[in-house]
Specification:
There is one protein chain. The chain is an all-beta fold. The protein has a single domain, classed as TolB, C-terminal domain (Neuraminidase, 6 Propeller). Helices cover 1% and strands 58% of the residues. It is built from 1 helix and 26 strands. It has one helix at residues 255-258, and strands spanning 5-11, 14-20, 23-28, 33-38, 42-48, 53-58, 64-68, 73-77, 83-88, 97-102, 108-112, 115-116, 121-122, 124-130, 136-144, 146-153, 156-161, 166-171, 177-182, 189-194, 200-204, 209-213, 219-224, 229-236, 242-248, 261-267.
Length: 269
Amino acid sequence: MEDFTVAVEGFAFPECLRWRQDDLWFSDILGGHVYRWNSDLGLREVIAMDSGPSGLGWSRDDELLVCDGGNRRIIRVTKDGRKEIHADLSHLMLHPANEMITDSRGWAIIGGYGYNPDTDEPTPSSLYWVSPEGGISEFVGGLIFPNGMAFLDDETIVVAETFADRLSIVDASSGRITSRIKLPIGSTPDGLSVAEDGSVWVASAYGQAVLRVERDGNVDRLISIPDVGVFDVTFGGPDMRTVFVAISDTDETHVAVTKPGKILGFTMD
């Protein structure tokens, strides 16, 4: 059993964890805020957004980019705090936008829910490239609820397909899926991060755990976090050996009021 501590708490649905500039940045999707936190300065609000802020990244000018899930667009937060539309994907996505990452050039990759609430079932969905100027092009299609994403290296991306219980490895230049890693049934992979050794650490949303997945697909470690939803995981701290895990209740109907969401931390072995 890991020695978890509560880093920060009091959120509806924390997700999209990013370590940057010695701070943990994250979105409270159902609480409508983006925050940054560290143990010295505590919690600071970055922006409020009532339409479901989710994936976070940065432009080539080091301005914060936020996935505006409900409106299916990317918002750029200028250095003086103004919110501007960076890209509008509402004509391409039928359902809310979700996760987003950026590369070192300021290009973004963004995906949608891939879930039809009217029929209560997954539907194939795409990821899109968004250029630093806001241009949009399809990257890869046919994914089943694309969720957490990360770069394995400069040429390769790993993406969680939540309701397919798998990770897909995608060539960044062509958008070709080069391989798929099947996870145990019920894993429901959500947010993920890549460790320095190349392993992929995956939040198992309804599996109540964090999984460590080797590049060959072997799940060689399962860190149980019982009785909660486990929605994201990332690395941070001065030596990048602190593992941060975002948790909340899996019943989303009350979380905006009760705010059960927390971010846990433990030191990686």
